[in-house]
Amino acid sequence: MPGAYEHFFDVMEDLGFFEHIYEDLPEDFTAVFEIARVLEDESNELAAKLRPVLTLTAPGRGEPPPEDRPDLEIIINDQEEFEAGLIRTPQHLPRIYNYQWLLPSQVFDHRLAKKELWVPYPREPRYFAVDPESDDYRPDRRKQKLYVLLDTSSSMAMKNRISLAKAVVYHFLKQNMKELGYIHLRTFDTKIGELQEARDTASFHALIRCVMRLHTLGNGTAMARAIRQAVDDINAMPQLSGTEILVITDGACALDEEEIRTLLGDGIVINTVKIGRSQLIASKSYIRDKIFEEDTVQHKLIDRLQKRETELLHLRDTAQSPHIRRRYDDSLRSTRQEINRQVDAMTEEIIVGYGHELERLSHLYIQVEDVELPGLFNLREEQETEIRDLFQQVVSELELHCSLDQLRKLALLIDHLAVLIKNTPDAELRRRFEELREEISRRLTECIEKQIAQGGGPLLRSLTAADRHDLDFLLAHSSSAHINLWRAFIWKLIAGLRKIVGS
Nearest to residue 147, comparing CAs of 222, 226, 245, 242? Predict the structure, then answer.
């Protein structure tokens, strides 16, 4: 995509990577930029597959406005306004009007069963016009309330899944920030993360930065607990009425489908992005329990056949005539064959359906394959030229003044080139990326040497004795082999300078 790197540093700022020293950032953190760049390309196959979830339409919001007539209204809901309505789901029971608890128990139970209890519901939000010429915001009433559940289990570290998930969240949040959406988010692995919300510019930026710097992943996937927590949050906060849930996960997990469906009721919708092809295999004990312990028509049929088998065994064993015993043996054989046929059919149904409960529960379910970054990035000579132009812009700034901004830009370019080198299959292009990274390292050396020659300034006065020792070593041994040392040192230097600037 021509011009993809024009706003590289702006995006890095947006992602919050300028604000944290290197040790606080996940490995290959700038890969998110490349994946997000791909998702913005409407002709890309992955972007096209994810488009339905990246452009979610909240239920009941109607059709999108024509392209030549933008929806120029935003939600204003400074104070909650409520109106009475009949109870829709058992989860709303704690919110019923208090006087109804005084009803006789039989009357209360009867009204609850017929959904005739009264509950306060928030009224439809009011909309007001905004400036149609604004570039920062394009309010859209179709996207207002969404609750994101982001899987942070250890398996998400495999095959670039967490980077893809972050890019999807980033793209999703940026789109909703323009449209003034109201977003809640929790992470989940074995534990459920803290509830975070975004409803204005500052909170959207804070949420984006929080998600981007996630790097500690936990074991396990507590999917059921995460969904229950999301439903509890939505039911506990009247202002979240009508919120959709978006699950981003790589995990296949077994859920109690009926329980979750009951929890969701008629008012909560789940949408899912499933990354990779992880599958869950039902254990023999689980299959046995499902076959012989549930209460469905098939289970009742198997139970009747088993009782019939027991009766035939008794009749055969007590029969006086060999001829009669042979008849009972034939009946036993037929009964057992039917039992086996029913068990095999149920086993196949359990095996096929096991682990796919989330798919059946989801209104929108998108399965995407694991991504291979070299093929996804599709790097070409144009990208190398654009990055080199970006570097030259920083160099021209360095000619005038060696500052913290220039240093952190060069440090970010070194990190990003490391990601590109790792994911560039073309040997010649990879070699040019490596040369560019060495050139940036030399520029860092020259910048600091110039500061030393001039007797130093804020840049050098911030150095401790240990820092100066490291600096002397790097200046004496500057080469491509020490680029990683340069990177660590520059980030350390930036952290020190930020303290000075802030004081």
Answer: 245
- The structural domains of the chain, with segments of one domain joined by +, span 49-60+136-275, 82-122, 284-354, 379-502
pLDDT in tens, 62-87: 444 444 444 444 444 444 456 788 88
pLDDT class of 352 with cuts at 50, 70, 90? low
Give 300's contacts (C-beta < 8 A, 6+ positions apart). none
Non-local (6+) Cβ contacts of 276 within 8 A are 158, 159, 161, 250, 369, 370
482 pLDDT tier (thresholds 50, 70, 90): very low
SS (H, E, C) 183-217: EEEEEECCCECCCEEECCHHHHHHHHHHHHCCCCC
For the stretch 143-166, pLDDT in tens is: 567 899 999 988 888 888 999 999
For Cα atoms 219, 33, 423, give the angle at the middle one, nearest 5 degrees.
80
Cα atoms found within 13 Å of the Cα of residue 423, Cβ hemisphere only: 22
Q: Which of 269, 242, 270 is nearest to 85 (CA)?
A: 242
CATH architecture of 49-60+136-275: 3-Layer(aba) Sandwich (3.40)
pLDDT score for 95: 82
pTM above 0.85, yes or no: no
Phi, psi of 485 (to 5 degrees): -65, -40
DSSP character at residue 66: P
CB atoms closer than 10 angstroms to residue 239: 14
Q: Are 186 and 149 in contact (CB under 8 A)?
A: yes
Residue that is written with structure tokens 């990779």 in the block: 276
For helices 8-15 and 404-422, angle between their N-to-C axes, nearest 10 degrees: 100
CA–CA separation, 33 and 477 (whole Å): 32
- Reported as a single tens digit per residue, the pLDDT across 83-107 is 788 887 777 788 888 888 888 888 8
Q: Is 415 exposed, middle or buried (0-12, 13-18, 19+ CB in 10 A)?
A: buried
